[in-house]
Design goal:
By secondary structure, this protein is α/β, with parallel strands linked by helices. The chain has helices spanning about 45-55, 70-75, 75-85, 95-100, 100-120, 200-210, 230-235, 235-255, 260-270, 280-295, and strands at about 15-20, 25-30, 35, 60-65, 90, 125, 130, 140, 145-150, 155-160, 165-170, 175-180, 185, 195, 220, 225-230. The protein is built from ten helices and 16 strands. Helix 6 runs antiparallel to helix 8 (about 235-255) and helix 9 crosses helix 10. The longest helix has 23 residues, at about 235-255. The structure holds fe (ii) ion (2 copies).
């Protein structure tokens, strides 16, 4: 699996990758622009520098699409709205609900604040607060909805399973898919795929089946990077196969162990070893794996 280099303007003048390798956002350029991915507060400085380097006129950034309401996919949004109040946020209906609800908002605010503290970073950039707060959503997107940027159109797909609110963006003109965490993650340097069905296994499979007919030349993940060519073309079918295979393994292991806690421990240990989850606390990892295992076994 070859993640392609970070300066990807040469791939398509319409797609500008932003952020860091672990927390990736994309600027989609038409006559007006859209940001895909809401990032984290600790990539804000890098993001602004990258936008400057590409000479991006911020007044042309009209939309910001939040793929799902996890702290690592919407953490920079409150800063961006404070600084660029003309930007309209796009999210799924359930995503919009969560972004205005005190529980999830406070949770994300606290995770972001603690991470910034641990990293020894200030809570503002260029005089603007990086704190998280509720996010007003202007456009609620679902299957069949699209957004015309002028010369390029974004099509939306509800892809629950990783989270209930997951929204994927597809650009037919570029045959480019931006699924965020709705697809398994390719592990760099290997053919292995890490299944991310953390909310509902059946929904996750249905979402992959929904994306399967799309012609795909490029996939832009919000963790890792982009893949192109044959890797991208075959990714959805390989993702589906890996997801079904993992569910089968979970079922077989449960039959062997007859111990849900042990099975959850085993998977939590396996996932914790991956670089991507290095910042996830052991409690969160265990809770996530418990939900995934129970859902794979049809217990939720
Ligand atoms: Fe994520
Ligand atoms: Fe996520």
């Amino acid at each position: 699996m070859a993640f392609i280099p970070q300066d990807l303007d040469r791939v398509s003048g319409h797609i500008v990758p932003l952020g860091s390798r672990n927390i990736r956002m994309y600027l989609i350029r038409g006559e007006s622009h859209a940001l895909l991915g809401g990032g984290v507060p600790w990539v804000v400085e890098r993001l602004e520098t990258q936008l400057d380097r590409h000479g991006i006129d911020r007044s042309l950034i009209r939309f910001l699409v939040i793929s799902h309401v996890h702290h690592d996919h919407c953490g920079a949004v409150p800063y961006l709205l404070r600084r660029y109040p003309h930007i309209e946020v796009v999210a799924s209906d359930y995503g919009a609900h969560l972004l205005g609800k005190s529980g999830p908002v406070e949770l994300m605010a606290s995770v972001n604040r603690k991470t910034m503290e641990t990293m020894g970073l200030p809570r503002e950039y260029d005089g603007i607060s990086l704190d998280f707060e509720s996010v007003p959503v202007s456009l609620r997107a679902a299957d069949g909805d699209f957004l015309d940027l002028g010369g390029i159109t974004l099509h939306f797909y509800s892809t629950p399973g990783h989270s209930r609110c997951s929204l994927s963006t597809y650009i037919p003109a570029l045959e480019a898919l931006f699924p965020a965490d709705a697809l398994p993650f390719p592990e760099a340097g290997s053919d292995k795929l890490t299944v991310t069905a953390s909310h509902d296994y059946d929904d996750y499979i249905r979402s992959l089946e929904k994306l399967l007919p799309l012609p795909i030349k490029l996939i832009g993940y919000e963790h890792g990077g982009m893949i192109t060519g044959e890797d991208a073309k075959t990714m959805i079918s390989r993702s589906l196969a890996a997801t079904l295979q993992q569910r089968q393994r979970i079922k077989e292991r449960y039959d062997e162990l007859k111990d849900l806690d042990r099975l959850v421990d085993e998977l939590a240990w396996k996932y914790s070893a991956l670089e991507l989850y290095s910042m996830v606390s052991s409690d969160t990892m265990r809770a996530t794996m418990a939900r995934m295992v129970r859902s794979a076994l049809g217990m939720v």
